[in-house]
Design a protein that fits this description.
Blueprint (H helix, E strand, L loop, with lengths): L12 H17 L27 H9 L8 H27 L5 H12 L2 H13 L12 H16 L2 H14 L5 E3 L3 H12 L8 E2 L10 H10 L8 H24 L14 E3 L2 E3 L5 H18 L5 E3 L13 E3 L2 E4 L7 H20 L5 H19 L4 H14 L4 H13 L3 H14 L4 H12 L3
Parallel strand pairs: 1-2, 1-5
Antiparallel strand pairs: 3-4, 5-7, 6-7
Length: about 450
C-alpha cells in the first residue's frame, strides 16, 4: 500500500464541475503531510536576518511571565511563546524517544539548539537536511518527526507574520472554540500558529491536530496522536486506517474502470486524481493529493465517529464533502456536526462578519501576504459551507469578500463563478473571470478551465 504525497445534493451540474476543480486546486496547493499543511506562501528565498529576533532566553522568559516589570511588545510576546513552544516540542521528542527506546538524532538536537538560539538560518538548514533523510530505510526519525515539524512550522510562521497580526489571528480562532472542543487546523497558519498559542497561553488547552496528515501512509501521525492524546482522544485504529485506504481504493477502481470502459461518457475520476490500474485494481502510488484528501476525509469521519462525546471545530484545508453536513459557522472556522441545520440568519451573519473583517483589514492598511491569504482562505472555506447548504447568494458574497481581501485567490474565484452560475448569472460569472484574469494574467489556464466548465452546459 503506497500513496504519494460538495454533499452531492446540488440539483444542478455546476456545483459538481466547479467543486471538482476547486478540490483539484486546493489539493494542488496542499503540501505533503511531511512538509506542512496548506496553502501558505513558501518562506523567503533569502532567509530573514534574525539579528535581534530573540535576545537571551532568560530575558524573554522573564518578559513572558511578566516578572521583569516591563511592558512587552508583540514581538517579545511572540518570541517568548516560540521559545516556550520549542522547549515543549524538544521535551516531547525526548519523551517519544524514551517511549520507543530509540536515540534522538544529533541533528535533531542541533535543530532545537538553533531555534533556542534564534538562529533561523541554521534551523532551516538542519530541518531540510532531516527532511531529506526522513524516508531512509530503518530511520527512527518518523517516530518523532511530527514534533520536529510542529516546532519548525511555528518558527516559520513567526518569520512570515507580523507579530501582532499573528497573535490576533491565532487568538481569534482559539477564542471562538467552545470548552472541551477539539480543533482541526488545516493550513500552515491555522495549524502551527494555533498549536503554538494553544500550548503557551494560560487557560484551557485544546486538543489540536490536522486532517492533512491522517493519511500518512506509515500511519506515523496516528501513532503520534495516540502517544500525546491517547488518554483523551480515541484515535482511528490500524484497522480503520486500512479500511479507509481500502474503501477509497475500491471506489477509485470502479471509477477508473468506468472511464476505461466508457471513454465517451463523462469521466468519473476527478481532475488530478492520477489513478492507474494494475491487475484491475487502482494503484495509489502517484495518485496525488486529490486521493490523499479523499482518504483524509474518511479518516476524519472515523475520528469523529470514535469520539461521539467530543465536539470538533475545523479550519478547512481543502473542501471535504462530509464535513459540511450539519456544520455551522464558528467565528473564522466552523463546528463539525453541530446538530443544528444552517439557517438563513446564520448565512447572513457569515456574510456580515467577513465584510466587517475585510473592512478592518483595509482600514488597518494590511499588506502582509500571509495575513491576507490566510483570512481570504478562511472566508472561502465558509463560502464552501454556505454553498453546500444551498445558500448560493450568500456564498457568492463570501467568495467576493475573499477576493476583496486577496485578489489572487484561485479558490475564491472558483467558488464565486460556481455560485453565480448556480443562480443562472452567467454574464456576471464571466465578468468575474475577466476581472480576475486582468488582475492575475498568469492564471489564464485556470480561468479557461473555469469558463469551459460552465459554458459547456449553458
Amino acid at each position: 500500500m503506497t500513496l504519494e504525497t460538495k454533499k452531492d445534493t446540488e440539483p444542478r451540474w455546476i456545483w459538481l464541475a466547479a467543486g471538482c476543480l476547486l478540490i483539484l486546486l486546493a489539493a494542488v496547493l496542499m503540501p505533503s503531510p511531511k512538509t506542512g499543511e496548506t496553502p501558505n506562501p513558501s518562506p523567503p528565498t533569502k532567509a530573514t536576518n534574525t539579528a535581534g529576533w530573540r535576545a537571551t532566553t532568560e530575558r524573554l522568559a522573564a518578559a513572558y511571565s511578566g516578572k521583569d516589570g516591563s511592558s512587552r511588545t508583540a514581538a517579545e510576546i511572540v518570541a517568548a511563546k516560540l521559545n516556550k513552544f520549542s522547549l515543549k516540542r524538544r521535551a516531547l521528542v525526548e519523551a517519544l524517544a524514551k517511549k520507543y527506546k530509540i536515540t534522538v538524532l544529533p541533528d535533531v538536537e542541533r535543530f532545537f539548539d538553533a531555534l533556542d538560539a534564534g538562529n533561523w538560518e541554521e534551523a532551516q538548514r538542519l530541518f531540510r537536511s532531516l527532511k531529506e533523510s526522513l524516508d531512509s530505510p530503518g530511520s527512527d526519525l518518523p517516530k518523532y518527526w511530527r514534533a520536529v515539524l510542529e516546532a519548525y512550522g511555528a518558527a516559520q510562521q513567526v518569520q512570515l507574520w507580523p507579530p501582532q497580526q499573528l497573535l490576533d489571528y491565532g487568538n481569534g480562532i482559539l477564542d471562538s472554540l467552545k470548552p472541551g472542543m477539539v480543533y482541526f487546523g488545516g493550513t500552515d497558519s491555522g495549524c502551527f500558529i494555533c498549536t503554538m498559542l494553544n500550548e503557551t497561553t494560560g487557560g484551557e488547552q485544546h486538543i489540536t491536530l490536522t486532517q492533512n496528515a491522517l493519511a500518512t501512509p506509515d500511519a506515523s501521525y496516528l501513532d503520534y496522536l495516540s502517544a500525546i492524546y491517547g488518554d483523551s482522544l480515541n484515535v482511528p485504529s490500524r484497522e480503520q486506517f486500512q479500511n479507509a485506504f481500502d474503501q477509497y481504493t475500491d471506489d477509485a477502481t470502479k471509477r477508473a474502470l468506468h472511464d476505461q470502459q466508457f471513454p465517451d461518457e463523462p469521466p468519473q475520476l476527478l481532475p488530478g486524481e492520477n489513478i492507474t490500474l494494475i491487475d484491475g485494481r487502482a494503484n495509489l502510488t502517484g495518485a496525488g493529493p486529490v486521493a490523499t484528501m479523499a482518504i483524509d476525509n474518511l479518516l476524519t469521519q472515523a475520528l469523529l465517529k470514535n469520539n461521539p462525546g467530543l465536539s470538533f471545530a475545523l479550519q478547512e484545508s481543502g473542501p471535504m464533502q462530509s464535513t459540511y453536513a450539519g456544520s455551522t459557522p464558528l467565528g473564522q472556522i466552523f463546528q463539525l456536526n453541530a446538530g443544528n441545520p444552517m439557517t438563513a440568519d446564520a448565512a447572513g451573519q457569515v456574510v456580515n462578519y467577513w465584510q466587517s473583517e475585510a473592512q478592518n483589514l483595509q482600514a488597518a492598511g494590511e499588506t502582509s501576504t500571509p495575513v491576507l491569504q490566510s483570512y481570504a482562505h478562511n472566508v472561502t472555506a465558509q463560502g464552501n459551507l454556505l454553498a453546500n447548504n444551498n445558500y448560493s447568494a450568500e456564498a457568492g458574497q463570501a467568495y467576493q469578500t475573499a477576493l476583496n481581501i486577496w485578489p489572487a485567490s484561485v479558490e475564491a474565484v472558483t467558488g464565486l463563478t460556481g455560485a453565480l452560475a448556480q443562480q443562472g448569472q452567467f454574464d456576471q460569472a464571466g465578468q468575474a473571470l475577466d476581472a480576475f484574469l486582468q488582475n492575475n494574467p498568469d492564471q489564464s489556464q485556470t480561468v479557461g478551465n473555469l469558463r469551459q466548465a460552465w459554458l459547456a452546459h449553458h
